[in-house]
Amino acid sequence: MKRKVYLHIGTEKTGTASIQHFLSRHYDELREKGILYPRSLGRKSNMKLSAALQNYIKRDDLRITYGLGSVKEIDRFRKEILEDLRRELEEGDIEKIVVSSEHLSSRFNRPEEVERVREFFDGIADEFEVLVYLRRQDEFFESRYSTAMKTGGTMLFKVPEKGKESFDMHYLRLLELWSASFGEESVTVRVYDRNELHGGDVVEDFIRTLSLPVERDEIDKERMNVSLGAKKIEFLKYLNHYLPRFTDEGLNITRGGIVKMLESVEIEDAPLRLGKKDRGRFMRRFEEENSEVAKRFLGRERLFEKRSPKKSEAKAQKLGVKETFMIFARLWEMQQQKMMELREKLEDFRRKQFESAEKIRSLRLENALLKGDYLMASRFFRAEFSDSSLPDAIREGSLLLRDGFYHPEKWGVWCNGEKSSILLLKVDSSLLQSQKGIGLLLEYRYLKGSETLSSMRVNGMQWRRLDEKAYVLGPDELKRYNGLLVIEFSHENASSPHSLGLNEKDRRVMGCGIKAIGFEEL
């Protein structure tokens, strides 16, 4: 079976995220029709291929993402993804492989790197087509600057010095590089301009260009990687100074979803654009090579149409104090709303978790009681909660220390300062006949110097302040759970040894400490 590989190499800022979103969403549908968008090379973007096939010397974010440092690690990774791709191809009759990674154009600038891509597919494909979308270099620069700010950049908005432009802005060099390995006749150039794209949309154009037999839905039409306006970019540029994307410890998680929130802030803003003079000077650098690209790859004189600035466009500008605080207020409001929603979800999750845990515990207890695996009290029962004397039934069956305790120590065990602390006991059935009830005996302590006040209740009845050593449990409390005692503790002003100056390293928040518990017939 003949097989063709389509290599979509970008360039960056030409709707690649939207194309990759479409391909990954329709993976199964495409596969059924003999077209593979290989997950083995990256589930969303095929960036694994780019990370693997760059020259060894490169140590960029792609290599860091996949933990590739040494030559040995890179060789192993190359072998792994090739084997994974072969296995993926064995799962069905695949006639077309569609690969999409904008990094193939932005990171691959040496002939041996591109040749390595061709060699990777030797024995897998018989034909190749390289598809590349080209955008006006001035618009490319503007859009890339917006992305740079999103990813933590702090640089000023100005065009690079002549001769210091990125490799992927010089389209003739880029196309010649790929033509050298795959042949100029195998390179397809599309212009990223609404007036030239099929349906005025890059995803629709991609589908038509590759003749993909898949219909788009409304989700496919959602815009991806939206550029920020001039005011938002200025705000983010200064924010990045004080809230960087990376710290010495790595990715700065305190940034959270700041960029996503900023994108949704509604303010009067305009796209950030170069000034007329800067735009003209910048584009004149590329006139000759753009003309050559147009003649050789499109059979026409001009690569891009002339562009007239729109009134709604803005240059880089100083952000006023009022506008700065307005953006900050919107972000704060959105963050608080998000926190409220998370709290509601957390409370709902805890409620469901508690209900599930109660059901599980109930089933476990019923099963334990059926097996006779519980503590049967006689006229008097006493359990000490020290590490050395803790009864096996407590330690193994967890029928006494239910939850909410720290690990037992030599003297006893600390409650963790929360209301969820629970103890379980099984009372001798003969004691349940007593009309007087039974006596509950507690030996407990508090941290020295603490102001903790603890309370206790049995079987969900009334709370009692924990200030005595003995308590009377009435018949109603005993019979409520058929002889099962559920003893709960709650705590006010719980503190830690660290906060009281007792132990600098011990930051556990503690309620009361239980040394022993028992009960006897009155």
Layout of helices and strands:
Blueprint: E1 4-8, H1 16-25, H2 27-32, E2 35-36, H3 47-53, H4 61-65, H5 71-90, E3 96-100, H6 103-106, H7 111-120, E4 127-134, H8 137-150, H9 171-182, E5 187-191, H10 202-210, H11 230-242, E6 246-247, E7 250-251, H12 258-264, H13 276-284, H14 287-298, H15 321-371, E8 380-384, H16 392-397, E9 401-403, E10 413-414, E11 421-426, E12 438-445, E13 453-458, E14 464-465, E15 470-473, H17 475-479, E16 484-492, E17 513-521
Parallel strand pairs: 1-3, 1-4, 2-3, 4-5
Antiparallel strand pairs: 6-7, 8-17, 9-11, 10-17, 11-16, 12-15, 12-17, 13-14, 13-16
Helix pairs in contact: 3-5, 7-9
User: What coarse outline follows from CA principal-axis ratios?
Assistant: elongated
The share of residues in helices is: 25-40%
- Spatial arrangement of strands, main beta sheet: 2-3-1-4-5
Structural class: alpha+beta
User: Termini distance?
Assistant: 90 Å
Query: Low-confidence segments, ≥5 residues, pLDDT <50?
Result: 368-382, 387-399
CATH topology of the largest domain: Rossmann fold
What would CATH call the class of the largest domain?
A: Alpha Beta
Q: What number is the mean pLDDT?
A: 84
Largest sheet geometry: 5 strands, parallel
| Backbone CA Rg | 34 Å
